[in-house]
Amino acid sequence: MFEELDNVPRLLIEQDLWPVQGDRFQPTGFADIGAAVYQRHDGIRMLLVESAQSVANRLESTCVDGIGVRQELDGLPYVKAKLIGHTEAETSSLIEAHRINSPYIITDSGFQADFVKKAKYAKGKPLDWKSIASAVFWFDPNSLVHGVFMANLGDGRVRLPRALSGFIEASEVREAASGGVKNNPLDPTGKIRAVGHDENVYGNVPYPRTEYTAERITAYFNLDLALIAGYSLPEPAHDLLIALALFKVRKFLSGGLRLRTACDFTLDGEMRVSPKYQIPEEGGLLTEVQRRLKECAEAKHFASPAVTEITTTVFLKEEKKATPA
Question: What's the half-sphere exposure (Cβ side, CA atoms, 13 Å) at 273?
Answer without folding.
Answer: 14
